[in-house]
Specification:
This protein is α/β, with parallel strands linked by helices. Helices cover about 35% and strands about 20% of the residues. Helix 2 (about 30-40) packs parallel to helix 10.
């Protein structure tokens, strides 16, 4: 399937979201993705992941995929090096987050709340959404209280029905959000992150660490928390299962995540490099419907 020139992808960094992108709907990595990633790395490419998950939750996936440079985790709040098994760079919420969180906690007794410090997940209150989250991601958690909340928090995840989270979003936007902002990362997840922290800014930080020019970066992602990632890189890609709005940010639309969207992305990058010597050509390969 692939040609054998050495260093074909040297100096190119590709970042991939996990759920709905690198992973199929069964939360597995399609085999053709693994083959394509190996080919990409064998020819000099740098591959890593960009995810909202904490480092431990993404660890097995990252290792199986064979990431060869630091990864973006916690939606950009933490850059983690799986090869060295340590964090490289991180952002934390301002101390005032506790006051905001207490008001949200009291105003919405139906919601579940998690607080993240790297891979440590503290649960202030659980619900069905939060319980399902831990089953899917196979993570352990620590029950906590407001009195025991630490200051060096990377992000907050609020779980609930989408209708309820829309009300949470409206409520939060009217509070003092100095040094923070909120965004949906799933219809049933609403997160509060440090200001100016997102997948895009952290992707550029990874590129800097890896000495890759911004124009030689590419990324593939499928959801609203990937918009900053897609806007920041030189060549943005989405899988076909992404919402219509997300597709508008892409230069190339790969196939469905179940069929190996990352493999499609790598094959497309290879075509561009062979044709143009770079990824500069803009092409939309699938009609947005």
């Amino acid at each position: 399937m692939y040609n054998n020139e050495d260093n074909l992808f040297e100096g190119i960094l590709l970042l991939s979201d996990l759920d709905g992108t690198l992973l199929d709907t069964k939360k597995d990595i399609p085999h053709r993705n693994l083959e394509a990633i190996k080919h990409f790395k064998d020819k000099g490419g740098l591959f890593t992941v960009s995810t909202g998950r904490c480092p431990n939750s993404a660890k097995n996936i990252a290792i199986k995929a064979g990431v060869n440079c630091p990864a973006v985790t916690l939606n950009g709040a933490l850059i983690f090096d799986y090869q060295k098994d340590k964090s490289v760079f991180g952002h934390t919420l301002p101390d005032g987050y506790k006051n905001l969180l207490k008001r949200v906690y009291d105003a919405f007794p139906q919601i579940g709340i998690q607080v993240y410090i790297e891979s440590n997940i503290f649960v202030l209150r659980s619900n069905d959404v939060i319980d399902k989250f831990f089953i899917i991601e196979k993570q352990q958690y620590i029950d906590t209280s407001f009195e025991n909340l630490p200051n060096n928090t990377n992000k907050i995840l609020i779980g609930g029905s989408h209708d309820m989270l829309l009300k949470v979003h409206e409520y939060v936007e009217n509070l003092d959000m100095a040094g923070m902002y909120g965004m949906f990362t799933d219809p049933t997840y609403y997160e509060i992150l440090p200001a100016n922290v997102n997948k895009g800014n952290s992707a550029l930080k990874v590129a800097q660490v890896c000495k890759v020019k911004p124009d030689n970066t590419a990324a593939i992602g499928d959801y609203y928390n990937d918009i900053d990632l897609l806007k920041s890189v030189g060549y943005p890609i989405t899988p076909d299962n992404a919402p219509k709005k997300i597709k508008t940010y892409a230069n190339f639309i790969a196939g469905h995540c179940d069929n190996g969207a990352v493999a499609d992305a790598i094959q497309h990058i290879e075509r561009l490099v062979r044709q143009n010597g770079c990824m500069s050509a803009v092409e939309i390969s699938a009609e947005i419907t």
